[in-house]
Amino acid sequence: MIIQFTDNATIKEKEEVKSVLASYSFRTRGVITGGASYLVTVGSEELDIRKIGNMKGVSDVHRVEDDQKLVSRKWKVDPTIVNINGTAIGGEEITIIAGPCSIENSEQVATVASFLKQNGINIMRGGVFKPRSSPYSFRGVGLEGLRSFHEICSSMGIKVITEVMDNEQIDDMYDYVDIFQVGARNSQNFTLLDAMGRLDKPVLLKRGLSGTIDELLYSAEYIFSGGNERIILCERGIRTFEKSYRNTFDINAVPVLKRKSHLPVIVDPSHGTGIRSIVREIALAGIIAGADGIMVEIHETPAKAVSDAAQTLDFVEAERLFYNARATWKFREQLSLPV
Length: 339
Ligand code: PEP
Ligand code: MN
Fold this sequence. Notes:
339 residues; alpha/beta; Alpha-Beta Plaits; TIM Barrel; 11 helices; 14 strands; binds phosphoenolpyruvate; binds manganese (II) ion
């Protein structure tokens, strides 16, 4: 059950609700987010929820049986719009996030950021702490690089999304990040998820390398129940038996996540395929499937990219994708699809 308190509910009113629930052997957990104050309950006894609904200080009560409660659409039917200082993810407009796999230097950042600006895109991606399979691969420019990445972008009105790999990095990164990305390899790093729950900045949460939909939603539940409702889910392909491409982009995941959860869903066809020449089709397919936006890797000269060159679009390819993505978004609106 999820109980939402009114904005002016008193401590006494909240305690009374808790004690009624305790008398029915429900365990409760208070969740205070930027948006509201909730009580999430776990228990199996029969209880007429109207009894709670009629109590002072309660604005709404919903029965949600499974453990994906706060992220569930069973509770919140309307889609969540994540607002980042005026930029909305999950609303009427398609979200396009683009940038290199890795931040390399300030010239590269300035070139990509100007290209994005020309194309009306105001969120730039780029890793400064890179999770690499081999310890000998390029592992990112680190905090110094993040500072100049952020400085260049903010001077151009562009928001920065970058991956955080460890709790210890959060404080140092905080001032230079607009959206924290939790990568596939950390999708079930529960201490990192707990820390993301304590943040007052949005989090883009990627699906794990072999993660199920349920596992992704449970991970999102960690963040939400920790106090941060500004979560964006990301389908980035999963590991299957198929070896013809880096990952198997799971198109089914998009409408299924949209039906199960009220959170916005972004698709990442770059990691989802690993193959530059098919990124565009898969991105467009993701939009038709119901995604709220796309995140793609781009570079002025992909062949020179220090990581993920094989899946990185050049500017001509990227421009074509942006154009197609916006047209596909408009087309999708005409289809009256369920999500
Ligand atoms: C990335 O987006 O930079 C990245 C490393 O992706 P993933 O975590 O999906 O592998
Ligand atoms: Mn990459």
